[in-house]
Amino acid sequence: MRFGQNYHRNFIPEWSEHYVDYNLLKKQVKLGNVTETYEYLDTAVSALKIFYKHEINAGSFGEEELDKLQWFGRVNLDAIERIIAKLKQKGHTGSPYPGRFAFLVSVRQIQLYNQQNGNGLQDGIGLQDGILAKRPRVANPLHMAMRHQDDERVHALVQDLRNLDYLSVRGEIALHVAAQLGRLDYTTLLLEVLAKNNLDHDIPDISRGWTPLFFAAVDGHLDIVQLLLEAGSDQHRKDHLGWTAKEYAVFKGHLAVAGLFDTTTVEDLTGGPEQNPFGASVYAPNHCIEGEKIIIATLGSSRKNRVVTQVDLSYCSSVYTPGKHESVASFSLTISALGNKSQLPRRVWLPILDDQINDPFIFSVASDVAAQLIFKVYRDTGEGNVLVGSGTALLESNSHQFGAGRQSLIREQTVPILDKETMAVAGTVTFTFLIAKPYSHDIQGPQGFSTPEEWTRALTPVTSPPLLVGHRGTGQNLVANKHLQIGENTVGSFLSAVKLGASFVEFDVQVTRDLQAVCFHDFSLSESGTDAPVHDLTLDQFLHASKVQSPHGNPLSTLGQPRYQDEGSNNRPRSRSLGGQFEAGAIQIRDRMKHTVDFKLKGFKPNTRGEFIQDSFATLKDILTQLPEEIGLDIEIKYPRLHEAVDAGVAPVAIELNTFVDVALDTVHQHSKPGSKRKIMFSSFTPEICILLSLKQKAYPVFFITNAGKIPMTDMEVRAASVQVAVRFARRWNLTGIVFACEALLLSPRLVGYVKKKGGLVCATYGELNNQPDVVRKQVAAGVDIIVADRIRLVAETLAVLN
Fold first, then answer.
1. In a domain, 222, yes or no
2. Which of 71, 200, 296, 537 is least surrounded by CB atoms within 10 angstroms?
3. Left, alpha or beta for 572 (phi > 0: left; psi -120 to 50: alpha)?
4. Which domain holds residue 426?
5. Tens digits of per-residue pLDDT, 565-614?
6. In this structure, are residues 603 and 610 in contact, taking their beta carbons and an 8 Å threshold?
């Protein structure tokens, strides 16, 4: 979620005509039209001064009116400052200086401006025709009624044809407004009246070339998108940047919306999303050095199902509500860390226009300093910032509640803000935080490939792209599969995957209570007969659940029925080479599991006798020491997630994040042979794990795994909700690439180019659809670098034909 995409949400309806057109200017900057951009900005500042003078002199202003006028100035000022910043990034300098617009920010300055300038400005001076009349234009009444969501006036005004095809200064008709608002009733009404009067509804706006369909798709309004498509909106139209509405829907994580569009072909895979490469990534520390720790904090919650006001004070807020708070644009929040000397406090103006999820506050402090964040609220008086309230968050104060080396899976914290004068609680600030600590061993370069270019060069001797990775070995265990399955996440499965054509094997690593890295996917070890999480068991307890089933020989079905081999085997029954005592053990463990939450949900458990070819549970040490070094390893760090604990009905507490990551790194460091050429990469669904892996080492590439909006979305993590936020997150923290649920990129293949060429990232995919040859062929054509699959032989044969 970015400022430009959500600009329309900050409109005050009656002044919506008079906002600086941020999207138009951004496009001009991208096209290199610098002169036109500066001319627009110079004109806009002059025009807005006239508009402001007119509004102030139009009548007496109460607090609510002044509040709205400040907000109007705040949004326009932000737009101008951002455009000037973009111009400076490209090496351009010129006018206007944002300070010329500062008179719009505070009540005091508004009043001074009114007193000092009164009639000092002449209407129309320096203005181009059509920018602003001598008397400011009033927004179209239908547009205003819709933005105010005044249903009665909307139904009355829609009967006037002049309102239906009225174009705002941004080239928007009323239907654009209805789509932006997500009002199905307005959209239905307007489409009916437009059709009745033979008026076109599929009109692109001026600044972006967006029709109403684009607005509905971007915001995920499924019912409105469906209605517009049925009305004949052109779903293949491209905007000024070459994007389609469907691509925006996928980009934003609205995969159900994207599914309403026609099937995308791979014939035209260039242009559009892949153009205009990103600039340099915003600041992020490159490494967590010895003797320091890094505090990373983000305002608000990182969970989609948590609606929380980031800054919620009696006199100001992070959310703008007209008339609710006084002097809305004159408050700011600063965030600093105790013991931080190298960086100034970060300041955020309130209300907040942007989503903060990928713009964290980062502070380096000495390891022996208590981790504390200090929040201060200031008010701009026109003569300087005055402190009005403050609060301190003790980030490590509750660690003793969970036991040594443990922490809550809820990383969100709320701190009270105390009023400076009364010391009463004035409100709260809610934030999410992570503390990164240095890794004790130096493994900063043995492999020497972390960038996409280094990654590609390193893998070239192994295989031609795309790289085939065996998912949990020869595939995830599912009872629905008709072919014979080797127990997932086992040494036998990994060896088999390589024989069938995989270059890498992917497996899940968790950490036990006694800090041993084990290879296991599920949150709980149901084989124990309980819903106990893996991190609450010792290594011996973990391995005992495996020993009970006895992996020696060729196991039988628990029901005494033969299992069948892989397709092409003529359904020959497997050998029955074990005695009855082993069959009894398999029955016993199944009876034990049937009372667990996990087994009740799925009806089976991976790598168990009777369902699959069961093999011994493995540790990360086993994999590193028993697999030949030519087998590449994709080590997925499977840190417990909040929804897993909730589903299992256990306390949301796990091993401390740094400890969890350090155990995995220690195991790799200790059991990798000197001079080993083994290729290893790390991956994780948990953003914090990816951040720590990036900060603690540079020897191995790190990949972020994301559903990118795939439904159902069990993990409510915001940073995993779309292609857009995933790419920004990966770039923000210097990750090598992203592993997407393949559905997103199948819906919009050109986004592969966006990830690779514009984002500068390696693009990988996973999912059951990756087992279908036609899906594999589409991804190869789109340029996917890595395919994680279950049906290794089938996919390997498909790739062999293509290469």
1. no
2. 200
3. beta
4. 292-436
5. 444 444 443 433 444 555 666 666 777 777 788 787 777 778 776 677 77
6. no
Dihedral sign, Cα of residue 623, residue 627, residue 628, residue 632: negative
Say yes or no: 428 and 500 in one domain: no
Confidence of residue 97 (pLDDT cuts 50, 70, 90): low
Q: Is 230 part of any domain?
A: no
Claim to verify: residue 642 and residue 562 sit in the same structural domain: yes
Residues in contact with 434: Cβ distance below 8 Å, sequence separation at least 6, in sequence order: 295, 296, 297, 411, 657, 688, 691, 692
Distance, in Å, from the CA atom of 2 to the CA atom of 724, rounded to the nearest integer, reads 10
Average pLDDT, the chain: 82
Domain end residue (candidates: 183, 207, 231): 207
* 100 vs 384: CA distance, rounded Å: 17
Note whether 15 and 89 are same-domain residues. yes
The domain that contains 740 carries what CATH number?
3.20.20.190
CA dist 346 → 293, 556, 734 (Å): 18, 63, 22
Tokens of 792: 């290794």
CB under 8 A, 24+ apart: contacts of 592-596: 592/527, 592/528, 592/529, 593/526, 593/527, 593/529, 595/529, 596/524, 596/526, 596/529, 596/530, 596/531
pLDDT in tens, 142-173: 998 998 899 999 999 999 988 998 988 788 99
| Residues 785 and 466 sit within 8 Å (Cβ to Cβ) | yes
User: Two tokens at 510?
Assistant: 């968790």
- How far is CA 178 from its chain centroid? 27
d(CA 571, CA 386): 80
Q: Is 764 a member of any domain? A: yes
Q: In the chain, helix, strand, coil percent, each to 5?
A: 40, 15, 45
Clarify whether residues 767 and 737 are in a common domain: yes
Cβ atoms 455, 463 nearer than 8 A: no
| Preceding omega of 562 cis (within 30 degrees of 0) | no
Q: Is the pLDDT of residue 743 over 90?
A: yes
CA-CA-CA-CA torsion for 238, 241, 243, 245, nearest 10 degrees?
-70
Please tell me whether residues 501 and 419 are part of one structural domain: no
In this prediction, residue 556 carries a pLDDT of 35
Domain boundary among 158, 176, 207: 207
**Token reading at 433:** 């935080």
Domain count within the chain: 3
In a domain, 193, yes or no: yes
Q: Are residues 65 and 182 in the same domain?
A: yes
> Mind listing the pLDDT tens digit for each residue in 753-776?
999 988 889 999 999 999 999 999
Count of residues in the chain: 803
Check whether residue 395 and residue 465 sit in a common domain: no
How do residues 653-680 score in pLDDT, each as one tens digit?
999 999 999 999 999 999 987 777 889 9
Please tell me the distance from the alpha carbon of residue 94 to that of residue 79, in angstroms, as a whole number. Answer: 16
